[in-house]
Design goal:
This protein has 435 residues and is an alpha/beta fold. The chain is built from 15 helices and 12 strands. The longest helix is centred in the last third of the chain and has 23 residues. The structure holds NADPH dihydro-nicotinamide-adenine-dinucleotide phosphate. The site of NADPH dihydro-nicotinamide-adenine-dinucleotide phosphate has 24 residues, from helix 7. Belongs to the Glu/Leu/Phe/Val dehydrogenases family.
Length: 435
């Protein structure tokens, strides 16, 4: 903490890992005296740069751009770009650190990184977003490459932004390579990539429920967020016979007791992806629903909760309310949405709880599959990618069980994911020496 005391999110993410991994390291002879965790918490490289761009009125703006190259022991750096006013070094370091473990869990050869900017795409025209993305890439392009560092999307970076970023990279480098994932289908993107994080989160929840001879079918599900991850998590819940009753954005959440069916979800997707509107508009379209300003949806009774918006959106009180109302399974679609107090409450109540680094790994896993397809210059079918995604989520689940089982038979997925992710990276670092 002395070196990173001003970075609360980063410290929170490291503490969560340290709590479970340090006792494990203490029992393993090979890691003794190697200071592996100390080496892992220091980014291999942290790049910060100026992004100057001109708005539609001719005014010049300056934002700060970042790329954090955290760990490349098992493959090129890989992780998303976030465009949001809250972005700073602490948030990106927490995300990059989590990414190292997550990518290791996927079984694919990817190191960990993360990047982004404090640029706010909300309220900007398409042309302004394009000019910002182009300006951002004129600097980022010197630090990335298909064998070095392969960024993807995250909050505020979707298909539109990836298109603008890719276009500028291609122009500057004069090469068409898989340097970014989340590309459009006609120019190197993978089928199922837009769906992968949300679908994967629900596949993981299904795997967890199966350990108790249960399933998503017939369950009432609370989802937060209404962006990429939330939309496809909701879609998969519907396909598996569950009922989604909430969605949210940074303004508040909607509660639809009748359930958000496929038609309503299509309306939300159009609202968010094309019209770029607010979730509050849902209640005008569907008056049976209610809107709760400034609140997360965790007071709504549900058996399954899928936090899919942002970090620290579910606190200890929320967790207790969920448990009291009959929640039996929580799978994180977002990164670190549950506070440490919430996680302790879930563990104490012995309900199923999956940390994002395990349950939302389907997105980066499918990005890894996009990289493979780009290298081979082929394109797999939807069914093929979906099967691989399902298989990877099931393998991650098995790894969590292997390392996370406690004496009373309860699976601590946090411990399981942290140790399983750690072992592969630590072994590679040991083999490569002190560098
Ligand atoms: P989007 O930008 O598509 O959606 C983000 C959603 O979260 C929006 O509904 C947004 O509301 C809401 N949100 C953002 N910030 C806040 C906040 N401070 N308080 C409340 N709500 C907020 O992003 P994604 O769906 O891609 O990402 C969501 C989460 O999933 C993030 O934690 C991300 O890191 C994680 N993730 C994403 C992956 C991916 O493949 N996209 C992969 C793995 C994890 P609003 O529109 O009002 O801002």
């Amino acid at each position: 903490t002395s070196r990173n005391g001003h970075e609360p999110e980063f410290i929170q993410a490291v503490q969560e890992v340290a709590e479970t991994v340090i006792p494990y390291i203490a029992e393993q002879e090979i890691y003794s005296g190697k200071n592996i965790l100390l080496r892992m918490v220091e980014p291999e490289r942290l790049i910060s740069f100026r992004v100057a761009w001109v708005d539609d009125d001719g005014e010049i703006h300056v934002n700060r751009g970042y790329r954090i190259q955290m760990n490349s022991a098992i493959g090129p750096y890989k992780g998303g770009l976030r465009f949001h006013p809250s972005v700073n070094a602490s948030i990106l370091k927490f995300l990059a650190f989590e990414q190292v473990f997550k990518n290791s869990l996927t079984t694919l050869p990817m190191g960990g990184g993360k990047g982004g900017s404090d640029f706010d795409p909300k309220g900007k025209s398409d042309d302004e977003v394009m000019r910002f993305c182009h300006a951002f890439m004129t600097e980022l392009c010197r630090h990335i490459g298909p064998n070095t560092d392969v960024p993807a999307g995250d909050i505020g970076v979707g298909a539109r932004e990836i298109g603008f970023l890719f276009g500028m990279y291609k122009k500057i480098r004069n090469e068409f390579t898989g340097v970014l994932t989340g590309k459009g289908l006609s120019w190197g993107g993978s089928k199922i990539r837009p769906e992968a994080t949300g679908y994967g989160t629900v596949y993981f929840a299904q795997n967890m429920l199966e350990t108790r001879n249960d399933s998503i079918e017939g369950k009432t599900v609370a989802v937060s967020g209404s962006g990429n991850v939330a939309q496809y998590a909701a879609e998969k819940v519907l396909q598996l016979g569950g009922k989604v009753v909430t969605l949210s954005d940074s303004g508040g959440h909607i509660h639809d007791p009748d359930g958000i069916d496929a038609e309503k979800l299509a309306w939300v997707m159009d609202l968010k992806n094309n019209r770029r509107g607010r979730i509050s508009e849902y209640v005008k379209q569907y008056p049976g629903a209610s809107y709760h300003k400034g609140k997360a949806p965790w007071h709504v009774a549900c058996q399954v909760a899928l936090p899919c918006a942002t970090q620290n959106e579910l606190n200890g009180e929320d967790a207790k309310t969920l448990i009291k109302n009959g929640c039996i399974c929580v799978a994180e679609g977002a990164n670190m949405p549950s506070t440490p107090e919430a996680i302790h409450a879930f563990h104490d109540a012995r309900i199923l709880f999956a940390p994002g680094k395990a349950s939302n790994a389907g997105g980066v896993a499918t990005s890894g599959l996009e990289m493979s397809q780009n290298s081979l210059r082929i394109s797999w079918t939807r069914e093929e990618v979906d099967q691989r995604l399902k298989g990877i989520m099931s393998d991650i689940h098995d790894s969590c069980i292997e390392y996370g089982r406690e004496d009373d038979g309860y699976c601590n997925y946090v411990k399981g994911a942290n140790i399983a992710g750690f072992v592969k990276v630590a072994d590679a670092m040991l083999a490569q020496g002190v560098i």
